[in-house]
Design brief:
Radius of gyration: 19 Å
Largest sheet: 6 strands, antiparallel
Order of helices and strands: HEEEHHHHHHHEHEEHEEEEH
Helix content: 25-40%
Strand order of the largest sheet: 2-1-10-9-8-7
Structural class: alpha+beta
Strand content: 5-15%
Distance between the termini: 7 Å
Shape: globular
Number of helices: 11
Number of strands: 10
């Protein structure tokens, strides 16, 4: 592992690729770390989705929520009279697998910056046409994650940020992260959380250990398994990392591997067969594909 990591670092430096840090956990301990910049909390973008999924899994295991719960039934006051008929078929499981049927990318970061959907994301989304049968196919959309997070909040009767603080952040010594909230004061289930590299990667270790942290069962192992198993195919393309999606976790092209994945390179990859978690963070300069290629070719595929 040490030699492979050195080769990866050498390629990053030789090609002047943009990356802030890489860290590796093995057998539950920090085994290696290399920094190009200081490790400070940064926006982990859609890596946030996997934290939201974790909160959903806890609520499901406690009987407060079900994968079959219908979106429209959770927010009947926001359903317009001319709602798309297929809206009533969209369930939590479809939101978690990016197969809600809205069939386009909505409430992405750039949209939210422009005020699209403000102030009420629920009314905005439930007024959108549903173009495909829910569950039929994958279409990546942060709106699906936001809606799943709002269903969670309604089911548990508290804010998602507070819930995660009590159930995940505090027991795992992550602290209370800075996080983007919507205009109505709800944590964004699909992005905007800020964490340092070591805290970000703790989620991967939690899942690698079957939902346990320091001997305490924080997440139902059944949810850990379901969330990190391929639930839906992703569109075929030249990216080797596009090989299926679970419940807000991506599958990875290594034995039984999966990852939490945020824009520009906020990645935590779990390698169960190796007993390892590998995380990286990168700046927002548009060159992540080259970093991804180096990580795959020099490190992850050779472990």
């Amino acid at each position: 592992m040490e030699k492979l990591l050195k080769n990866f670092i050498a390629r990053i430096d030789a090609e002047a690729l943009p990356i802030e840090g890489i860290a590796v956990m093995a057998e539950g301990k920090l085994a290696a770390e290399h920094r190009w910049t200081q490790d400070i909390p940064r926006n982990i973008y859609s890596h946030t989705k996997s934290f939201m999924s974790t909160a959903v899994g806890i609520a499901i295991s406690e009987g407060k929520l079900s994968l079959d719960d219908k979106l429209a039934e959770f927010f009947p006051e926001a359903v317009p009279q001319d709602a798309s008929p297929l809206l009533f078929e969209s369930a939590l499981r479809h939101l978690l697998t990016m197969s809600s049927g809205f069939d386009r990318s909505l409430l992405m970061g750039a949209d939210r910056r422009l005020g699209v959907g403000a102030p009420d994301y629920i009314r905005y989304m439930l007024s959108q046409p549903v173009l495909a049968k829910p569950g039929d196919h994958f279409h990546y959309s942060t709106a699906d994650s936001i809606l799943a997070g709002r269903m969670l909040e309604k089911a548990i009767g508290m804010g998602m940020a507070e819930f995660l603080w009590e159930r995940i952040f505090r027991p795992m010594d992550i602290g209370y992260p800075m996080w983007e909230f919507c205009p109505q004061g709800h944590a964004i289930g699909g992005g905007g959380m800020c964490l340092g590299l070591r805290d970000m990667m703790k989620l991967g270790q939690l899942y690698l250990d079957g939902g346990k942290w320091n001997g305490e069962q924080l997440v139902d192992p059944a949810w850990v398994k379901a969330a990190t198993t391929k639930q839906i195919d992703t569109p075929k393309n030249d990216n080797v990392w596009h090989c299926g999606y679970g419940y807000q976790f991506w599958m990875s092209p290594y034995p039984d591997a999966y990852r939490a994945d945020g824009a520009h390179g906020q990645i935590t990859t779990v390698l169960p067969e190796k007993g390892m978690v590998v995380s990286i963070q990168c700046p927002e300069n548009g060159k992540f594909p080259q970093v991804q290629a180096a990580l795959h070719e020099e490190f992850l595929s050779l472990l």
